[in-house]
């Protein structure tokens, strides 16, 4: 039976510079042995059309070689494609609705990624009408026969449980403008997948500081959940 528990991990990081740096490099301290496979989920980058750079505090967290998978919901240029290729051995990208014409590699409309015991479906999200509609997303998830559906397009991060399965939207990592979300908060998602357990961390940049929200969901409730204290040690 699936279970979900969401709680605020930390408010704005107002400690010493050394402690702040330690926090910002949090994901570089994670080990596969302790937390299973690490999956970075991001999208709607929109550089240079709607944004200039990925926020520096986020870039310092995205260390090559620490994650096993990168999932991108689309809308990225050639430079960002090359940067993502350096982050992890497994890169999974789907086509966005605003991919630059200079993007040489044609991305699929959808794809399915197996991580641990979970089948993760990936789409950009503009194909789902009405946009942001959870019932419409659930129909796509059922058609794809997946446990987790990742989608973007709205530029608003979200983790939602429905019928024992999950919908994840990483938002826009650059906080790029959207007609659906004129004032977007930069965000991305990091999953720690250990067999039938997923620990989902949503990272947001709010007023210049990084905030993290943790959501847990399982296919096997007997597995142990990593705690924030162990992540920082």
TrEMBL record:
User: Could you tell me which residue ranges the Calcineurin-like phosphoesterase domain spans?
Assistant: 39-191
GO MF annotation, one: hydrolase activity
Gene3D superfamilies noted in UniProt: 3.60.21.10
Q: Name one Pfam family in it.
A: Metallophos_2
CDD domains to which the protein is assigned, alphabetical: MPP_Vps29
Question: What InterPro entries does the record point to?
Answer: Calcineurin-like_PHP_lpxH, Metallo-depent_PP-like, PdiEstase_YfcE_CS, Phosphodiesterase_MJ0936/Vps29, Vps29
Domain of life of the organism encoding this protein: Eukaryota
Q: Does the keyword Protein biosynthesis apply?
A: no
- GO cellular component terms listed in the entry, alphabetical order: cytoplasmic vesicle; cytosol; retromer complex
What does the sequence similarity comment in the record state about its family?
Belongs to the VPS29 family.
NCBIfam families from the xrefs? yfcE
Name of the protein in its database record:
Vacuolar protein sorting-associated protein 29
Q: Which organism is it from?
A: Grammatophora oceanica
Q: What is the lineage of its organism?
A: Eukaryota, Sar, Stramenopiles, Ochrophyta, Bacillariophyta
């Amino acid at each position: 039976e699936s279970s979900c528990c969401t709680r605020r991990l930390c408010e704005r990081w107002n400690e010493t510079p050394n402690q702040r740096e330690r926090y910002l490099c949090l994901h570089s301290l994670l080990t596969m042995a302790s937390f299973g496979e690490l999956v970075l989920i991001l999208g709607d980058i929109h550089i240079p059309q709607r944004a200039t750079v990925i926020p520096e505090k986020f870039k310092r967290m995205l260390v090559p070689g620490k994650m096993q998978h990168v999932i991108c919901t689309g809308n990225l240029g050639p430079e960002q494609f090359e940067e993502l290729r350096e982050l992890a051995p497994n890169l999974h990208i789907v086509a966005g609705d605003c991919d630059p014409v200079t993007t040489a590699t044609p991305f699929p409309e959808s794809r399915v990624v197996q991580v641990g015991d979970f089948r993760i479906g990936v789409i950009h999200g503009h194909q789902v009408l009405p946009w942001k509609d959870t019932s419409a997303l659930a129909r796509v998830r059922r058609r794809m026969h997946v446990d987790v559906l990742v989608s973007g397009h709205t530029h608003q991060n979200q983790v939602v449980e429905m019928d024992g399965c999950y919908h994840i939207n990483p938002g826009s990592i650059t906080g790029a403008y959207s007609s659906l979300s004129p004032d977007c908060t930069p965000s991305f998602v990091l999953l720690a997948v250990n067999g039938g357990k997923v620990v989902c961390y949503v990272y947001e940049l709010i007023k210049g500081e990084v905030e993290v929200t943790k959501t847990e969901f399982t296919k096997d409730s007997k597995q142990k959940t990593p705690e924030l204290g162990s992540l920082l040690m």
